[in-house]
From TrEMBL:
Its main location: membrane. It is a multi-pass membrane protein. Gene3D superfamilies: Regulator of K+ conductance, C-terminal domain. Pfam families: CitMHS (PF03600), TrkA_C (PF02080). The chain crosses the membrane at residues 6-21, 56-75, 96-122, 134-153, 174-196, 396-426, 438-460, 480-500, 565-585. One of its GO terms (molecular function) is monoatomic cation transmembrane transporter activity. Signal peptide: none annotated. GO terms for biological process: potassium ion transport. The lineage of its organism: Bacteria, Pseudomonadati, Pseudomonadota, Alphaproteobacteria, Rhodobacterales. InterPro entries: Cit_transptr-like_dom (IPR004680), DASS-Related_Transporters (IPR051679), RCK_C (IPR006037), RCK_C_sf (IPR036721). This is SLC13 family permease.
Length: 586
């Protein structure tokens, strides 16, 4: 072993130990590994930042923006609501949720697909009277399986595609992963239909923000303009139209205010409806009913608006006053969109509601004005939640852009990086997502980690380290049939990915797998595919993949719960995945 090879292995080993230690952020660990490689001379200074210009960084960043836009569009929520009304048993609700997230994860990055459907899982759990833990871990595992189906479903597939292009001149295309990925996804879905019972039934999440600060349903006011879908309908018909989840607590017509509305009360153009419900239900009512939210004043459309959830402190100047009395918009440039007060059923108009300490307000205004206004008003911002009440959402356009991007990529017209970068840009340009929200959707630590690790992993190749490991593996595998060698690679990737980020696992393992295949006299395709599957299937821990981490808190899971469900699923992936890879890739 040469000195450069030894230094590369030492840096890689130290990086893995830091990942396992977990005290430093993974992007910082990657940066330290890059600095150490530069100091050791295994990475040349002129090559230090080549990773940041790699297509992988562009694809992952663009996929995150696309995922966020699809999530904001509401089209997924519409489909799920339709399903929820028809599926009542816990087992079939779990099946619908896992199937949905699996299909979505093939179209957008799996973490984005999971984030879209977590709210739906909470609604189903609430209706069925079970803990969300019955749904969340199977959904996380389903998102990992769905990510195996296409090139953009998960980062390992993108990285493996680039390694193949470096070796053969041809990358894996968008749907080259599909035959193996679909087979594994179906196998996983069948197992999870019964396997979800392995999750302890007593798991409960910590109290939510709503429970901790006593946030109840919000009260708001909305106008019925001419031509609105709600106009001419009874209150009962309106509630049915928006799929329930809210109440009409009052109706103002001209100078007359009705504190009680009967189901047969007819809604007319010009009416103001006083509504009460969860933010999602209120947003749905405004959107589907064609209503206009009441505001104390109007902000020019060129202003970038933000929505903040705030609580009225005991020192607030708003206590004992209404938004109209204090001239909230005229003096401070902000609007109160909705009010939440425990056990309060609002029958007065929104602007006339006298505020008290502890009220939770949805406050909307220009991003540049809100911090100063909240400080002056004595409002304390709560932890940020995804509340879109009062925002504008484009439903179909983001989906059309995504389908077009995937079609152009699948047909070979555009490279993946160009297609998805173009899709993200179009979504921002058409207003489907604001540039501010788009930048917020990008997980910058992941991109920094990728950019820093690419030259470090390439150093393992340039120093001959991958050849050395490949030779050792081939000697170890001497006498093994090809399925045994493939199993070795897949299991090795599965074993490493709980300790490294899955993208980092592939950056290290893919070149080794390719060398291993060459030493055995095989084409690299099957071994690269086995690496992608192994790195994409971390079902054993909550730390190996962000999807598992994302559901740990909301599901109230413990570290060992993942292995209870994940170990048999991992075994199934190996038993089914290896034969599938052999059949498809020879």
């Amino acid at each position: 072993m040469t000195q450069p090879q030894l230094l590369s292995f030492l840096i890689l080993g130290g990086m893995m130990l830091l990942f396992i230690w977990g005290r430093l952020r993974y992007d910082l660990v990657a940066m330290l590994a890059l600095v150490a490689s530069l100091a050791a001379g295994t990475v040349k200074p002129e090559d230090a930042f080549t990773g940041f210009s790699d297509d992988i960084v562009i694809i992952v960043g663009s996929a995150l923006v696309v995922s966020a836009t699809i999530a904001r569009s509401g089209i997924i929520e519409t489909v799920i609501r339709w399903v929820v009304r028809r599926v009542t048993t816990v087992r079939w609700q779990m099946t619908v949720l896992v199937s949905s997230v699996t299909v979505l994860a093939a179209l957008v990055k799996n973490i984005g697909a999971l984030a879209m459907l977590i709210p739906a899982s909470f609604k189903m759990a609430k209706r069925s009277g079970v803990s969300p833990s019955a749904f969340l871990m199977p959904m996380s595992f389903g998102s990992l399986l769905g990510g195996l189906i296409t090139l953009v479903g998960t980062s390992p597939n993108i990285i493996v595609s680039r390694v193949r292009e470096d070796l053969t001149g041809q990358p894996f295309r968008m749907f080259d992963y599909a035959p193996v990925g679909i087979g594994l996804a179906v196998t996983g879905l069948l197992f999870l239909q019964v396997g979800y019972r392995l999750i302890p039934a007593d798991r409960r999440a910590a109290p939510t923000l709503d429970e901790a600060v006593g946030i109840s349903d919000y009260n708001t006011e909305a106008y019925v303009p001419e031509g609105a879908k709600a106009a001419g309908r009874s209150v009962a018909e309106f509630l049915s139209l928006v799929d329930g989840g809210l109440a009409v607590t009052g109706l103002v017509r001209g100078a007359v205010r009705r504190g009680v509305t009967l189901p047969e009360t007819r809604i007319e153009p010009g009416d103001a409806l006083l509504l009460r419900g969860e933010p999602d239900a209120l947003e749905r009512a405004v959107k589907v009913g064609g209503l206009d939210l009441a505001r104390q004043g109007h902000t020019p459309p060129r202003e970038a608006l933000s929505m903040v959830e705030t609580v009225v402190t005991p020192q607030s100047v708003l206590i004992g006053k209404s938004a109209v009395q204090i001239a909230l918009h005229g003096r401070f440039g902000v609007n109160v969109i909705a009010i939440s007060r425990p056990r309060h059923r609002m029958t007065e108009r929104l602007g006339d509601t006298v505020l008290t300490g502890g009220d939770v307000l949805l406050v909307q205004g220009p991003a540049a004005v809100l911090p100063e206004a909240m400080d002056a008003l004595g409002l304390l911002p709560l932890a940020e939640r995804s509340i879109r009440l009062g925002g504008v959402r484009a439903e179909v356009l983001p989906l059309v852009i995504l389908v077009a991007a995937m079609g152009l990529t699948a047909a070979g017209v555009l490279p993946v990086a160009v297609a998805f970068f173009g899709a993200a840009t179009l979504m921002m340009a058409t207003g489907a997502i604001s540039p501010r929200d788009a930048y917020a959707a990008v997980e910058w630590p992941i991109l920094v980690m990728l950019g820093a690790l690419i030259p470090v992993s390439e150093a393992l190749q340039t120093t001959g380290g991958t050849d050395l490991i490949g030779t050792w593996l081939s000697q170890t595998a001497t006498g093994l049939p090809v399925w045994g060698a493939l199993t070795m690679i897949m299991v090795a990737a599965m074993a490493v990915t709980p300790f490294l980020n899955n993208a980092a696992t592939v950056l290290v393992m893919a070149p080794i797998a390719a060398t291993f295949a060459g030493d055995l006299g095989f084409a690299p395709d099957a071994f690269l595919m086995a690496t992608a599957v192994g790195a994409g299937c971390d079902f054993l821990t909550p730390i190996g993949h962000q999807c598992n981490t994302l559901v740990m808190g909301p599901g109230g899971y413990r570290f060992g719960d993942y292995a209870r469900l994940g170990a048999p699923l991992s075994l199934l992936v190996v038993l089914v995945g290896v034969p599938l890879i052999l059949v498809v890739w020879g």
